């Protein structure tokens, strides 16, 4: 039995739509983190608007 090599394209976040949403979510969390004492509260706040 011979091994078959598959050459896959390099990973490109531009081609993966979910990466754009994660980018937006992370940026929003960074913006509001200073307003809250705990990061989990900041995440909850941002997730309400998604």
Automatic annotation (TrEMBL):
GO molecular function, one term: nucleic acid binding
All residue ranges annotated as the Tc1-like transposase DDE domain in the record: 4-39
Keywords: Endonuclease, Hydrolase, Nuclease
InterPro entries given in the database record: RNaseH_sf, Tc1-like_DDE_dom
Pfam families documented for this protein: DDE_3
GTP-binding recorded as keyword: no
Protein name: DDE superendonuclease family protein
